[in-house]
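Researcher: I'd like a structural prediction for the single chain below. Treat it as a standalone chain; there are no partners to consider.
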Amino acid sequence: MIRSIYGYVRVSTREQNEDRQIIALREAGVSGKNVFIDKQSGKDFERPQYKKLLRKMKKDDLLYIKSIDRLGRNYEEILQQWRIITKEKGVDIVVLDMSLLDTRRGKDLMGTFLSDIVLQVLSFVSENERTNIRKRQTEGIAAAKARGVRFGRPPRPLPDNFHRVCRKWRAGKITGTAAAKECGMPLSTFRYRAEICEKAKSF
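Model: Treating it as a single chain, here is the predicted structure.
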């Protein structure tokens, strides 16, 4: 029975480009119809296309992936899924960026042992890098906040009549509700922006 050849591609966001992975799979001989693509985080394996691929693969089929972190980023879950694919389903895996991770080779005890060791090291490195990225992001945000950098969407520019209306409101000539309506903004926003302007002495 001729084995089917599949490819799996994952990018973390919809904005990232999967072309590099697809080209590598095509060069390895994977048909476009057998390439399964997920566009989401690798933190777990709750991915629709990965699940579909897992259901479709049969014993003696072959799966190509570009690199181990495309399979996932969680150390324990990568090992678990690797064993499900290779041991329970009997499917071979080839990691194109790491020639040692090719289960078609070294079917003897030593070959399996070496493959398992390499997989565990790479899986650990992958998860450790993910942890370090999160840590660097957290530290970077904290440092930026300490410098006074504000996050989130910038405030909308004030309407042309804001300062004039604000002075009327401060003088008690109109209510806050009326002032907010004239400026085309919610009352809470009007009061907040007016307070900022008062502190800045801009009117």
